[in-house]
Design a protein that fits this description.
single chain, 281 residues, alpha/beta, Rossmann fold, 2 domains, 4-stranded parallel sheet, 11 strands, 19% strand, binds D-glutamic acid
């Protein structure tokens, strides 16, 4: 493997700021890697869109990452993974693509009550990937899958624990708690940012599972297996380049607030189904 390939960035993307929860785990584990984080802010949220539309959008973002020279792609979004992974892998067979699926399997191993709750977007809980996981590992466990319409928008707006967000999260948790769940899976990469609120509402008897560390470990395994690990020196600061098709200032503010990185974000634009850098001027 050429040095140029190994020092190329790892692409990571989400509809918005949710993937920052995964980015944080990635930069903590892989100090020597560079990352290119893309948010499709123009189309965020994805979670209530039709499957075909999500697939088209996710192919457009992935093409931009590949054309920008990324050596691997982390799909830091359950909604995109649930709908688009086969299409992405077929379209870009030479680029390793790491996806994510709600962590139902570990949750089932942990439950004592036999009831597990999953908070995710509508598209994720309807997606084939999720239904396959339930069929394969569900067994006798009752899995209460709960979409949370509106929660991604609250998190994008930076409202992690205000009264509106609390009301919404409480309503999403009600069916899960009423069913007697003792484990809750955060099945959307945005939701770790409201984990403190969820923990406060459900109390200490309920375990919360989120997959960011597991995704980071899986990414390291994939890079090692394909001899793609950067041989560069570990950097003291995370090496991340940010871009969005939405509002760059808003992404910069979220990056600072949510993961403590002070950075500027580049503007991307959609043109004829392709995502590209904004023309100068
Ligand atoms: N962060 C995303 C996920 O993990 C999706 C949010 C959305 O765009 O609806 O599902």
């Amino acid at each position: 493997m050429s040095d140029e390939k190994r020092t190329a960035p790892v692409g990571i993307y989400d509809s918005g700021v949710g993937g920052l929860s995964i980015l944080s785990a990635l930069t903590s584990l892989l100090h020597q890697e560079r990352f290119y984080y893309v948010a499709d802010g123009f189309h965020c949220p994805y979670g209530d869109r039709a499957e075909q539309e999500i697939i088209q959008l996710s192919l457009g973002v992935a093409r931009h990452l590949v054309e920008s020279g990324c050596k691997a792609i982390v799909v830091a979004c359950n909604t995109i993974s649930a709908t688009s992974l086969p299409a992405l892998r077929a379209a870009f067979p030479k680029v390793p693509i790491i996806g994510m699926v709600p962590a139902v399997k570990p949750a089932i191993e942990l439950t004592h009550t036999g009831v597990v709750g999953v908070l995710a977007t509508s598209a994720t809980v309807k997606g084939r990937l999720y239904l396959d996981v339930l069929a394969r590992y569900g067994g006798d466990t009752r899995v209460v899958s709960q979409p949370c319409p509106g929660l991604v928008e609250r998190i994008e707006a930076g409202d992690l624990d205000g009264p509106d967000t609390e009301r919404l999260v409480r309503a999403c948790l009600n069916p899960i708690m009423a069913a007697g769940a003792d484990v809750i899976v955060l099945g959307c990469s945005h939701y770790p940012f409201v984990r403190p609120l969820i923990e406060r509402l459900v109390g200490p008897g309920v375990r919360i599972i989120e997959p960011s560390d597991a995704i980071a470990l899986q990414t390291r395994r994939v890079l090692e297996r394909q001899a793609l690990c950067s041989a560069g020196r570990s950097a003291a600061e995370p090496q991340v380049h940010f871009a969005t098709s939405g509002d760059t200032r808003s992404l910069e503010a979220s990056v600072l607030r949510l993961v403590g990185i002070s950075a500027t974000a580049d503007q991307l634009v959609w043109r004829d189904g392709a995502l590209t850098g904004a023309p100068a001027g």
